[in-house]
Design a protein that fits this description.
Structural class: alpha/beta
Strand order of the largest sheet: 5-6-7-4-8
Helix content: 40-55%
Number of helices: 20
Radius of gyration: 24 Å
Largest sheet: 5 strands, parallel
Distance between the termini: 42 Å
Bound molecules: adenosine-5'-diphosphate, magnesium ion
Order of helices and strands: HHEEHEHHEHEHHEHEHEHHHHHHHHHH
């Protein structure tokens, strides 16, 4: 595994989350220049790309690197230009080439071999950027359980008969639970069995960015956005990941509605993913929300411990990792956030053992994962769950919490909901206002402060109620 290869695999992941347009602007001329124990130096071709990456993408890169190497690197960005004089070990652009990763933390060939295995799937990606598909995401390597069976079954049926019974199809779940995997698997399967069909995968963000770019071009050059329209109407299967992002944007929703309708009326398959149920997406136009609900909707939940174990065993076998079942059990019992972090933990333990020439066991896993053992994290709780539990606890309706009534028995639970959405979900006040029936952010601020004060003043009854509700939420 060389740094170049590592960077290539990071880029291929970034391509999934960064819009095509931004990707080309900021990442097309970048490379890892060097890696020390804890610093990764990334070279950029322009000042602009350097500062944009620094501002917007550094954290994501850091996490991707950690997932792949098990090391949390500091990221340093430099201009290629500024390296010109360091001629030793560099090519004409001033970059170090083919430096083995872990050169300085492991002399063992095994460590390098191991990294090659871990990275192997990334290197075999046959990415078709027009269609946005990554060949690794298939039905074959998707582990099925009660938590995702419905979503899987519908996805599989669609892949066999696109534009058939389930159209549109919307999958929703918290992050890291397999939406992108499933949606991509549909595309890959169709491409394999029906190569003549035009499949387009895009994220909601890409759709927004591309539209904005077209509108800008139109404004400055007086053209039309017909190319954009053509692109989205000339396809057979449209896979839109994280569609919730289009909410609250009038022009985007208008164009989306147009594309959606013309595909739908022509019996083309549409598959969407979202981080929540359409009814919970604030500022999504009714006409779009009702389109989403017209077809099939399935959610994916966190897999239980048995499925988590199965996922890790599959991953272990695929990567031929030398990790015994006890260690796998330890990881699956303790990582309760999402599948992405579950996989990350497995790789972290395997990398640590490989680099230090150890045979993995439960104790080592404990040590390596240590504090980073990621239990059900508060940020992964869905806002509806919070509202639901508050309403259940106080025996009032959800619509009352969201409504306008100002009687005391409603106002307090409403303020508690505000407080919990802020503390547990860490939502911005404005978003909380949107969720709670379109309230102003100052109202939310007032509500959350009221509860904070009560707690500070030692209101034990309230404290106890909050803690009971919290337990229910995390149950
Ligand atoms: P989301 O799009 O919901 O945030 P992803 O599809 O990106 O989640 O999934 C995160 C990671 O977990 C991916 O590497 C994916 O392959 C893996 N994953 C999720 N669910 C499963 C599953 N049921 N079987 C195998 N791998 C899974
Ligand atoms: Mg995703």
């Amino acid at each position: 595994m060389t740094l170049q290869e590592l960077w290539k695999s990071i880029l291929s992941e970034l391509q999934l989350t960064v819009s095509h347009h931004h990707y080309n602007m900021f990442f097309s001329n970048t490379e890892i220049i060097s890696a020390s124990n804890n610093t990764m130096v990334i070279g950029c071709g322009s000042d602009w790309s350097k500062s944009e990456i620094n501002k917007k993408y550094k954290n994501e890169i850091q996490i991707l690197l950690q997932n792949k190497t098990g090391v949390m690197y500091n990221i340093e960005l430099v201009l290629f230009e500024s390296l010109k004089d360091n001629s030793k070990n560099t090519d004409s652009r001033g970059k170090l080439n083919n430096l083995p990763l872990f050169n300085n933390i492991a002399t063992k060939q095994e460590a390098v071999n191991y990294q090659q295995q871990v990275q192997a799937p990334q290197q075999t990606h046959q990415q078709n950027f027009n269609r946005g598909l990554i060949s690794d995401y298939t039905f074959e390597n998707f582990v099925i359980g009660p938590n995702n069976r419905l979503a899987y079954t519908v996805a599989k049926t669609i892949a066999e008969n696109p534009g058939g019974t389930y159209n549109p199809f919307l999958i929703y779940s918290n992050v890291g639970l397999g939406k992108t995997h499933l949606i991509q698997a549909i595309g890959n399967e169709i491409q394999k069995t029906n190569p003549n069909l035009k499949v387009l995968y895009c994220t909601g963000q890409e759709f927004v960015d591309e539209l904005m770019e077209q509108l800008q071009t139109r404004r400055s050059r007086g053209g039309t956005i017909s190319d954009f329209k053509k692109k989205y109407t000339g396809i057979d299967v449209w896979l839109i990941d994280d569609v919730q992002i289009i909410a609250g944007r009038d022009t985007t929703q208008e164009e989306f509605y147009f594309a959606f309708n013309s595909l739908y009326l022509n019996k083309k398959q549409i598959v969407l993913s979202s981080d929540r149920h359409p009814s919970e997406i604030a500022k999504l136009e009714d006409r779009i929300s009702s389109r989403f609900r017209m077809g099939m909707i399935a959610d994916i939940q966190m897999p239980d411990v048995d499925i988590r174990t199965a996922i890790l065993r599959t991953k272990r076998d695929k990567l031929s990792l030398n990790i015994d079942n006890n260690t796998i059990d330890y990881i699956s019992q303790n990582v309760e956030t999402n599948v992405r972090e579950l996989e990350g933990a497995l790789i972290q333990v395997a990398t640590y053992c490989s680099v230090n020439n150890l045979i993995p066991n439960e104790n080592i896993a404990k040590e390596v994962l240590g504090n980073s053992i990621i239990r059900r994290e508060e940020k992964n709780i869905r806002p509806t769950k919070v509202i639901q539990e508050v309403s259940k606890f106080y025996g009032i309706e959800i619509r009352e919490i969201k409504g306008k009534t100002r009687t005391k028995n409603i106002v307090l639970p409403r303020q508690i909901t505000m407080y919990m959405l802020k503390e547990l979900n860490q939502l911005p006040l404005k978003t909380i206002g949107d969720i709670l029936g379109g309230r102003d952010h100052t109202t939310i601020m007032h509500g959350t402060e009221k509860i904070s004060k009560e707690l500070e003043n030692g209101n034990l009854k309230l404290k106890k109620e909050l803690s009971t509700i919290k337990d229910k939420i995390f149950e």
